[in-house]
Amino acid sequence: MYPSVDKKHEMSRTDKEPAKIEVQRSFPPLDESHYNVRPQDAAFYKKLTGIEDDVALKQHILDVQAKAYKVAPYGCIYLFSFTRCILMGLPAYQQVVRIGRECENPIFLDIGCCFGNSIREIVVDGFPAAQAIGSDLLPELWNLGHELFKSSPETFPAHFVGGDAFDPEMLAVAPPVSAQTAGVPSLDLNNLISLNPLRGCVSAIHATSFFHLFKEDKQLHMARALAGLLSAESGSVILGVHIGAPEKGPVKQVFNNIEVDMFAHNPESWISMWDGEVFEKGMVKVEAELKEAESFGPPGGNERFPVGLVWSVTRL
């Protein structure tokens, strides 16, 4: 997601200066010509909303997009990338599905969840909704997710924890738990006001289009913070996709003729960061590869999503 400059100071839920998101953020008025929902994604939306007519579905999505863009003029909202089912396309997705079906009291966390799309993907495939948590700076987006998918807290009992993930009161860095020290505390997910009580308890963490919002030091900080939440149980996983590059370092990307500065890892640097810096060497198996994403926007358009770093970090 790519927040606009003028929203930066509004998004923190505390009086503290929010963590700076190191990208240029300015987006034009909405343009529905970018609407290009893939058949598989349309089928997903139809299943959850009950809207079978393509024209009616498009108008419904446009209506929610307009409301969301007023709150958060993010690139993912402007370009309709929120309509894409990304999580289920990740190589480690079936690992998360198995956790949801086979583990006792599994917990799924989607960091930077926006409307909660990814949570709905995994819930459709059997993960208990009451054991899923979304987190984002803006609770308005979570509420609009209910409107987007025609759900309610009663029909979709996943949880939301809003706040700045760089605020230690929201998410503090803690060392990864070991198998020897790991416990199974009794958690009341209904009353969470921060992510810190989840330390060592989360079975699967999803972070897509998230890490590339920050510079290298902040990416390492966030990796360490998420690692502290992950369960020590073998098979627990953190997974996602974000902008990468063949060579580690600053990159410039263009979205709809807008240049954006970011910091990108390559697969080798991303693997070494998790296996050796974040976790002790040998505690995790890290897989990462670069993939070029599909084009977005109207059919026949020549604009492409940048090279994506697709990755997973699995506890051994």
Taking all Cα atoms into account, the compactness measure Rg is: 18 Å
Poorly predicted residue ranges: 1-24, 295-304
- How much helical structure, as a percent, in the residues? 25-40%
Count of DSSP strands: 9
Topology, element by element:
Blueprint: H1 39-49, H2 54-71, H3 75-78, H4 93-102, E1 108-111, H5 117-124, E2 132-136, H6 139-149, E3 159-162, E4 204-206, H7 216-229, E5 237-243, E6 249-255, E7 258-264, H8 267-274, E8 284-292, E9 307-315
Parallel strand pairs: 1-2, 1-4, 2-3, 4-5
Antiparallel strand pairs: 5-9, 6-7, 8-9
Helix pairs in contact: 2-6
Word description of this protein:
The protein has eight helices and nine strands. It is an alpha/beta fold. The protein has a seven-stranded mixed β-sheet, sandwiched between helices. It has a two-stranded antiparallel sheet with strand order 6-7. The longest helix is centred in the first third of the chain and has 18 residues, at 54-71. Strand 1, helix 5 (117-124) and strand 2 (132-136) form a beta-alpha-beta unit. It has helices spanning 39-49, 54-71, 75-78, 93-102, 117-124, 139-149, 216-229, 267-274; strands at 108-111, 132-136, 159-162, 204-206, 237-243, 249-255, 258-264, 284-292, 307-315. Residues 1-24 and 295-304 have low confidence and may be disordered. Helix 2 (54-71) packs antiparallel against helix 6.
